[in-house]
Design goal:
Two copies of one chain form a homodimer. Chain A has a single domain, classed as Orthogonal Bundle (Farnesyl Diphosphate Synthase). Chain A has helices spanning 16-34, 43-53, 60-71, 80-98, 114-118, 120-139, 151-165, 170-180, 187-212, 217-244, 247-250, 256-259, 265-269, 271-288, 297-305; strands spanning 107-108, 111-112. Chain A has 15 helices and two strands.
Amino acid sequence: MNHHASTTSHHASLDLKAFLEAQRQRVDAALERFLPASDSLEKTVVEAARYSLFAGGKRLRPILCLTAAEVVGGTADEALTAACALEMVHTYSLIHDDLPAMDDDDLRRGRPTNHKVYGEAVAILAGDLLLTEAFGLLADPRIGSNAAVAAERRLRALTILARASGMQGMIAGQVIDLESETREVDLATVEYMHIHKTGALISASLEMGAVLGGGNDQQIQALVQYGRHLGLAFQITDDLLDIEGDPDVMGKPSGSDVAKNKKTYPALLGLARSREMARKHVDRAVDALKTFDEKAEPLRAIARYLLERKA
Amino acid sequence: MNHHASTTSHHASLDLKAFLEAQRQRVDAALERFLPASDSLEKTVVEAARYSLFAGGKRLRPILCLTAAEVVGGTADEALTAACALEMVHTYSLIHDDLPAMDDDDLRRGRPTNHKVYGEAVAILAGDLLLTEAFGLLADPRIGSNAAVAAERRLRALTILARASGMQGMIAGQVIDLESETREVDLATVEYMHIHKTGALISASLEMGAVLGGGNDQQIQALVQYGRHLGLAFQITDDLLDIEGDPDVMGKPSGSDVAKNKKTYPALLGLARSREMARKHVDRAVDALKTFDEKAEPLRAIARYLLERKA
């Protein structure tokens, strides 16, 4: 195995675990404020949305977004509604993906999936709610620090979010994923699928943060590059975990991708070449950050951490 | 029956049918431009979205939006992306409402519903696509005349759209509608349900148009008032049509609300009082427009037309 300097973990002074935990708490507090429990007639669907939104997610996308804003010289506060919007869009996609008509999953993060608890109708609506409110959160001048951020920047962030989650992004990836379960696909198609299904939103997290934080074009492009490689490394290590991971740590049974005939990297490339490819993307992700100072250290550490992840 | 002047139809010089047809064509052409057919890997979901988007809808919401922009002294062009976004949100809501887990409808406008043609998974994603792209359409400065409209106005329009279609709007109405099928509800709940499920988006159509056209607060509020009464009149006449309408003209069997135990106005109030209530809301809708000149004539004519509608 090629122990390239950028992929060893002992040269970072940053305590990644403590950083992620502090950021996660910050995002959770903001989400709680932006989507509080409801006692209205329609409270069931709000409860269902909150059930999945507060299911112990790692808040990776929000953390990438907040950090990107700081990396380009802005403040995390300028990107806080965007960070929460990203988590809401991510959560909506999980709820709809788990539906019986889609992946038909009963468990997510060790708990029953949304439709198992609330039924299909409410689960569909809870996903719709999260998607809709994500855009409302980012657009509404009365919320958070929105009014302090230039309207043009917010519109640009909204556009990035819509493109990453729409027909040229996440939805494209999901359709191809569904179709690939019943036919043979090659590596290029699998890569195209992942770039759209998960990569687009991860990349958008960094781009939105950079735009809202006032980054220049060069800074924004560097963070987008980082995001693209991080997204692919994330997907490959996810596929590897499905085969090699500990079901207790992951909260779901291992081998579920294989059982569903999902076209994974290990299935197409084998374990060794998949690990090598994950490492290559981590290296490139870190490399994209070379013009940034120590504020980008969390992003470097997150990329390297993917090679050691257990869940 | 009280033949109030504002509800007779012979004092309008406007040819409503020709006006609606010209506006419909304008909206259809814009929708075709904003959501063209795709030959990408993910073309299936785009095709599914277009199947429902171009299913012969009347384009009521877009027409209200474009007209509102003109009524306050702006141009229809300033509201064109908003008008199309409204139709996309409306169409998404129909696709998801028709799903087996929701209303389980096989026919819509005389054609098989989306999931009957494309399957449930693609239908869910086609709805998600339309909802997501609606926000992208309104936010993206590279589309239509967006760049010519002040960013603050566009953010305000986006906020109105998100609120009207989100948990305090359409989704709230849909949840209450679902729940009311299995329990007794009173008139106040039915009204609350309709105000959210259909009224919010109709009202938003007018408010968005007024905002994008540069209306002042008083003008915007007058159009919102018109929209509220129009929305209720629309719902009541819709309920009446389900009982009294001609199935061939409507493209769906009559009596379907009764069969599903839907709580309609006629079911709660009887036919006579429902007709009277529709007329009252039409009067109030027209009354809300009293400070506007002849540019508001199409809005007056649309309201009056509801009392004569056949489909």
